Amino acid sequence: ALLRRAAAHSPALPPRALRVDAAASCDYCEGQGVAESCRLAAEALGVDGECAAHEARTFDAAADADFYDLILCVDGSSAADVLKEICVFDIVERSSRSTLVRRLGEFGARGKVKYADLDVDDALYGNMGGQDEVDAAMAAAEDMADMCAGVVAWLETLADGGDGDNDGVTTSLRERVAAALGELPETQWLVPPMLQSSNPSADVSRATNAAASAPDSGREFDWGSL
Question: How many other CB atoms are found less than 10 A from the CB of residue 117?
């Protein structure tokens, strides 16, 4: 909701230029609604209109990585969970979907990518309850509002520079986002070694065999064994 609001107020992005959705990296909250502390924080920021109908869903690597052009994770833990799922497809299909995954905290004010380890604090961690949880949710929401504004500002710079290249060829915003993501530094500690561009000699066949033998239900295997 914060990202949608920031995009809606952008003069550089076409109306409804972005399709935004939210998903959990783990399935323990599947089907649940918005926690009361988070609803109060959303209300304070004026984005509570979607809370009543919200039902949490779990990230679907096959569908989401194919449909969306950018996957933003609130912290390193969720980014690692998401990448663990996506990298299976990258290894087997020799694709580069892992480049879609970035941490929301990388985007600072005015769209300058900070490349810093900036995780959004989990207001619900520890089940504090009461006013402490409400305060934590409000602080996290304010941080995310700033980060979402940074994402939109970053997209604005891409939209503004997309009239054409040196040959006069016009590119779409989606194409420019893909190109820009491909140029960002890799999150080395999250991406398995065989998918890191700095390790071109890695033996992909071992990873492919391991991915192929992983259970379909969880699509998980021990990356450290490769």
Answer: 12
